[in-house]
Design a protein that fits this description.
Structural class: mainly alpha
Largest sheet: none
Radius of gyration: 16 Å
Order of helices and strands: HHHHHHHHHHHH
Shape: globular
Distance between the termini: 51 Å
Amino acid sequence: MMNVAEVDALASAAHAGQFDKIGVPYIEHVRAVAAGLAPFGDDLVMTGLLHDVIEDTDWTAEQLREAGVPDRVVCTVEAVTNQKGVPYEVKVRRIALNRNATLVKIADNAHNSRPDRTAELPEDKRVRLAAKYRSARDVLWTAAGALDVATIINIVNPSLLDELRERQNQGSPS
C-alpha cells in the first residue's frame, strides 16, 4: 500500500503541466486541500491529494488501486468525482451522505473560496463561483458539524471563520 509521500508523488506526476483558473500549478491546490485534512489522518490526506485525479487526468479508480492506493482512499476519491450529467447541487447532496467525502469537499471548497485566489478571477466568474460555493457550504457544513469545519477552514481558509460563526449564531436560540 502506498503512503502519503508516494501518493503525493503520484498526484504531482498526474497533475504535471496542469494549472488552475488563476495560473498556479494545480498540484498546489490538491496539496492545500490535503493540508486541511491532515488532522483527520493519512487516509484523508491521501484523498485530498488525489481528489481531482480521476476527474482531471487519465488515471482511473482501478489504476489507482493497482498502483497501491488503499481502496478506502479510492472510494472516497470516487465519491467526490464529478459524474457527467449530474448537477453540482445533486453531487453536493450525495457527497454530504459520506463523512470522509464531505470533509474532502469542505477543504476543496475552502481553498477554492480563498480571497487571494478569487481576487484573480474576472468579476462575473467570481460572483458566480461565490454563490455556488456558499450554497455548497450550506449543505456540507451542516453535514460535517462546526468543529470539523472549523478544523479544516482554520488551515485552508481562515477568512471563512466569520461565516461559520455567523451560521452558528443564527442556529443558536435567543
